[in-house]
Input
Amino acid sequence: MPAELMTTSAIEQAETVRSGEVSSRELVEESLAAIDRMNGEVNAVITLAAERALAEADRVEAGDERPLAGVPIVIKDLLQLTEGIRTAFGTEASGEFVSPFDTGLVAKLRAAGAIIVGKTNTPEFGILPTTEPHRFGATHNPWDLGRTPGGSSGGTAAAVASGMVAFGHGNDGGGSIRIPASCCGLVGLKPSRGRISLAPLPESAPMLATDGFLTRTVADTALGMDIGSGYEWGDSAWPPPPSAPFADAARRDPGTLRVGFTTVPPNEVEVHEDCVAAVQETAKLLESLGHEVEEAAPAWVNPAIIEMFLSIWVAEVGAGIEALGGLIGGPVDTSKIEPLSRELLEGARAMPSTEALNGILALRGFTRSVVGWWADHDVLLTPTLAQPPMPLGWLEPEPGEPAMKMLDTAGYFTPFTPPINATGQPAISLPLHESGDGLPIGVQFVGPPAGEELLLSLAGQLETAAPWADRRPAMAAAGA
Output
């Protein structure tokens, strides 16, 4: 029974523990066994917390009413800190840093009964949309081991898709939840700016990144939102609370929505025919469900937006690398960071403060020009990505090319996600399509500011109309 449970939802797993049908120890042991069986090929989990997880599982009893009582989960090895478990940020420069405290989201997940079995792989400092850090090596997509699971939450996505766990933490500063959700056939919601607090850590000046979750079901994602959201004293943004629990929204009829769809990205790169087909078929599905659907999009076609975003990204990454020194107790040894990170750090140090501030101002102006579109629409539908999952190594620059070339190349893969980090709106990727060779293809729904309830209601309706639960990689099915 525990082995079969690894491909069910986190909510179902908690219920079996609560009922006494399965103990938390049995569930955690099965998760650890799945990691042991598959991680050699997938390389999703880079820090294991087996002894602590089992000890915590032994303290969970039948009848425990906490929403994730005894459920094994993973935490992305970036931003969120874990007391007693190494946090590496995907880099050699962090050494063996272990935080003396849990950040707020981790503490909330533990309080909800979750058992952290490990930390997951991420590109160095979460910079790239593929998970291939020099320190820990590449994470492989469970659907095709020669392809990327996306990034930067690629380790978490691979762990959930392969059946190591049912619920994983991620974060998203330019698409880093939605990108791996699309690549690995999962539900990936980027919450509104400020919905999930970074406390006690300060937010960066651009406030592009937010935390969230990667799951197989809309209900699990909604549960994660109920556990993790909420204002903490000192937060720089505070969206209004939902009208009811997010779990209720996932079961609620969304009503008739005004949906605009587009396959034209802001930077006008070429979009793969499978990604175009995913949007077109989803638009037809939405029409069949009674929604008002038209080909329409905000005024976001602006090739300069990528340059704006990258200038801010350079400054943000550079500041983040320097901030690591405050955690590890000394300056960061730049000889231990990857060439791209080094180039970004050097670029940030050379950037005039006015350039960084003007970049933020430009993104704020872009937001003003884009978000007003939602006054006449409820949802924007786009491809999540411009291409199906790419082969591992696809971002590597040619010999002699600067490492920064990788960011330009990434823009051909991920044009639809960064603008929504700039605007701060919620967006969700749903696994509604497959490529011609059976790889997952996600579609992105962008909601109005603070519109997670609307997105979850629509996502729940689509999950019922076009179920994806039975679609999973062969290795996950074999494990069950």
User: Anything to note?
Assistant: Residues 321 and 345 are 7 Å apart (CA to CA). The mean pLDDT is 95. The two ends are 9 Å apart (CA to CA). The first helix runs from residue 2 to 5.
